[in-house]
Amino acid sequence: MAKKSDNPTNALINRNFIIRVLENPKENDVKKTKLTSANKLSNYLNDEEIKIKLFKRILDEGKDKYTFLIRNRLKIDFQSK
User: Distance between the two ends of the chain, CA-based, in angstroms?
Assistant: First the structure.
């Protein structure tokens, strides 16, 4: 059974978006993309401030799909459910 999030922003992101992460996109094939949750995204970013900026942008703009390239080592796709 899934554990409930104690962070309402993470819960909102998880409820409305699918998050895919690709590490080192220039070297790795798209087939190595991993699904993740808003909570686990911190493990990839190692920067809470960037995560908050991404989530704020996603929630404020209202698009169906977002793609972010973080420091050329991490590609993050948010797809609306």
Answer: 21
pLDDT digits (tens, 9 = 90+) for 4-46: 667 888 999 999 999 999 999 999 998 999 999 999 998 899 8
Alpha-helix runs per DSSP H in the chain = 8-16, 41-45, 48-61
How do the domains of the chain map onto residue ranges?
8-80
DSSP run (H or E) holding 24: none
Q: Look at residues 46, 48, 38, 35 and name the one whose alpha carbon lies nearest to residue 9.
A: 38
CB 36 within 8 A of CB 59: no
